[in-house]
Amino acid sequence: MCWLIDHALDIQQDSYPLAELYNHLKQQIPKKDPLIDLDRNPNNFECFLEQASVAGPEQLTVGHVRRFVPCTSNLDPYLRKLIRECRIGTAQPVKSLVSRPSTQSGLMISGPAWHLFKDKNIWRGIEVPLVEMKLSEILDLVKKLDIPIERTSIIAEKMSASNLTGLVLSTCDLPDVQETLKLNLGDWTLLKLLIETLRTWKPVTVLDAIETPSLMSPTPVLAISTSPSSMQEQKRQLTVQ
User: Fold this and answer.
1) Domain locations in the chain?
2) Are 180 and 158 in contact (CB under 8 A)?
3) What is the fold, at CATH topology level, of the domain defined by 130-200?
4) What is the dihedral of CA 198, 118, 63, 90, to 10 degrees?
5) Can you give the pTM of this predicted structure?
6) What number is the average pLDDT over the span 169-174?
7) What positions does the domain Kinase D-interacting substrate of 220 kDa-like SAM occupy (predicted)?
8) Shortest CA distance to 69 belongs to which of 78, 80, 82?
């Protein structure tokens, strides 16, 4: 939570979802640290953020953090110092991640599309827009949908036979795809949602890989010693400063 608040206060776009921000920065949070033991259940925290990521009045955004932080105890100054030190040298221009909202639709997955894949990192692994995707890349995503494997095999065969490449799916009429594949309602709904989302998806690596490498891929985190003796020494140095 401390890391999330510290990063959120650096972002000017109030509508940016907290769940998206957390997914971008969680790889930078030290995994082995005595302070981590103070966290209750990180899985429950991630589940809560995911549930609050759906677009609507209950979606948690950076704007909520900005409004509520002044009413709380805020971050302990010493914890803020540790976090800031940990971020030094990791090149984290967070503002550039949301500075162009008109072209960042791919980064703002929300609503039902957010639940298409159990592993949310699949979205981050998409490196090309739909129009440039090969048939094999489309089929790899289809196989990750919540559809029984025996049916995804049939869907893959039909899509291969019809040569439904990324270029085709980005330009054709979806009713024609439905007529060609003849899927049941549930399977077609999932596939249709995937296609519609990919049509507006802007791959992160195309837009921001150069500007925000530390947010989109795991980066080495500076080691911070938080043993009792070390923390006392660092606090003493902070007092002297």
Assistant:
1) 2-100, 130-200
2) yes
3) DNA polymerase; domain 1 (1.10.150)
4) -90
5) 0.47
6) 94
7) 128-200
8) 80
